[in-house]
Amino acid sequence: ISCLYGDYLVIGIRDIALDIIVLGLYLLTLVYCLMNIVGGLIKGIVDKAKGKYEKKMLRSWCVVGTLVPFVPAIVFTFMIPTLFNFQQWSISAYRIALFLVFLSVLVMVTLIVYGFMKLKNSDMKKSRKLYIHSLNICMAITIVNIVYWNWCMFWMI
């Protein structure tokens, strides 16, 4: 149905289900990363109080891999007020937002490749390898989500 002020398109249940699945997986990724951040902070405080410090491989990789999936959510959070007020950001703000999301995708792809290369010849514990694989999966879900939502163009309504 086409009108002067907008078009009504029929959206199939398959498309709606795919939207919900992709968005649900991303939300689960954010919850998992948030739990890792809180757990890491608590463990760090407890270890510091006990005076125990354990050197772990890929510690900085894990920190960056846990924080980067939040970049698209933060960009979207800054854009929410414009969706409710029918305001528009300036073109430069949209470009900065798109650049941040694109940069986060590049960082995540680099981290995934680097993580798999380091795990290939590593003698880490299985639990540590599982943790790194889970972060790789979280970053891959975030990349798929960004690509699926057409490089965050749906945020720029």
Please characterize this protein's 3D structure:
- The protein has 157 residues and is mainly alpha-helical.
- Helix content is 74%, strand content 0%.
- It is built from five helices and no strands.
- The protein has helices spanning 13-50, 59-67, 70-85, 91-120, 126-148.
- The longest helix is centred in the first third of the chain and has 38 residues, at 13-50.
- The mean pLDDT is 83.
Which terms summarize this structure?
157 residues, mainly alpha
Distance between the termini: 20 Å
The average pLDDT is: 83
What oligomeric state do these chains adopt? Answer: single chain
Number of helices: 5
Sheet with the most strands?
none
Spatial shape: elongated
- Structural class, by secondary structure, is mainly alpha
How would the blueprint of this fold be written?
Blueprint: H1 13-50, H2 59-67, H3 70-85, H4 91-120, H5 126-148
Describe this structure in a few short sentences:
The chain has helices at 13-50, 59-67, 70-85, 91-120, 126-148.
